[in-house]
Amino acid sequence: MLFIARMLLMGLHFVIAGVAGSLLCICRPFNPDNSRLCARLYSIPALWILRINLKTEVSSLFAKKRACVIIANHQSNYDLYVLGRVVPERTVSLGKKSLKWVPFFGQLYWLAGNVLLDRGNARKAKQAMQTTTETLKNRDTSIWVFPEGTRNPGQQLFPFKRGAFQMAIDAGVPIIPVCTSHYASTVKLGRWNTGKIMIRSLAPIETAHMTHSDMPALIEQCRVQMQDCIDQMTHELIEQAAG
Fold first, then answer.
1. pLDDT tens across 92-109, in order?
2. Could you report the per-residue pLDDT of 160-185, keeping only the tens digit for each?
3. Where are the domains of the chain?
4. How far apart are CA 203 and CA 31, in angstroms?
5. pTM score of the predicted model
6. How many CB atoms lie within 10 A of CB 12?
7. What architecture is domain 2-242?
């Protein structure tokens, strides 16, 4: 019964947040701070409805002084509500073109200034990547990317795709990894208190003097750091639950 009530409330919230966010974006279309505001519209009420205990340690993310590439692990559609709580100012994300047609969300996602990639069209995808690189260099706007390229509910990160790292090197901007503890199988929506999730941002990794030949080592460095952080947070949560 609790699960059904929550899903009904979440459905209503999804529609209301979509309408409110769309009105905001219509008033200031493609403003680079729309994504942060819309993310809060989705996240804050949802965390209350779902009664998720979210602990954030993201000082390195909010202390950023200039544009950067933010990379994060992607576990489920609930990331919209979980990670939406920590989207910093002037940050847009990369998403697949098909998101544009999701009712009450897709049009908002586009109007919020996010970048839609047509992964089935190499030429258009390359153009979009060039546009985001230009945005990083000249518009004081950060890009949020899920480098695994798809949802991953497992405990081990998938191999990272090159796009985020190529953008960072081409623009000469730092990379900030953002890690979320493993929650896809631990959060139980049928309980009153559904569970605890931790989010941690790591220290910025500078790319200013890197070239494309440095990319494989950079990708591996980021993946190892993120996996270690995710494993550590998950272990901490297990210990807290046992204590």
1. 888 777 777 777 787 788
2. 999 899 999 999 999 999 999 999 88
3. 2-242
4. 27
5. 0.91
6. 12
7. 3-Layer(aba) Sandwich (3.40)
